[in-house]
Amino acid sequence: MNHETDTEPQGTSFIADVRRSSTDTMVAGVAGGIAARLRIDPIIVRIGFVVLTVVGLAGLLLYGAMWLLIPRDDATNSVAGKALGVGDETQLRTVGFIAVAILA
Length: 104
What we know:
Elements: H1 14-17, H2 30-38, H3 42-56, H4 58-69, H5 79-84, H6 90-103
């Protein structure tokens, strides 16, 4: 079987490639963007955020961090990147997600 069309190019990562959706939004497009990147229904991602929120508020922390650290699909910089004046946001996202994971 040939899986060349199903594989990602070398050097790409989920954090670098995910974008908040500008069309599939309920709050900020985080779930829509993650679902588009994973090629799943956005309702599954939204349910995951709700479950994480009910269990211990981790869903709210993660959603808020993603809202600040992931740019929209029609923008080049995230909210945090614009506020801090950062050009390359890869390191900002990595550090931000690690900090939120520790807090969660």
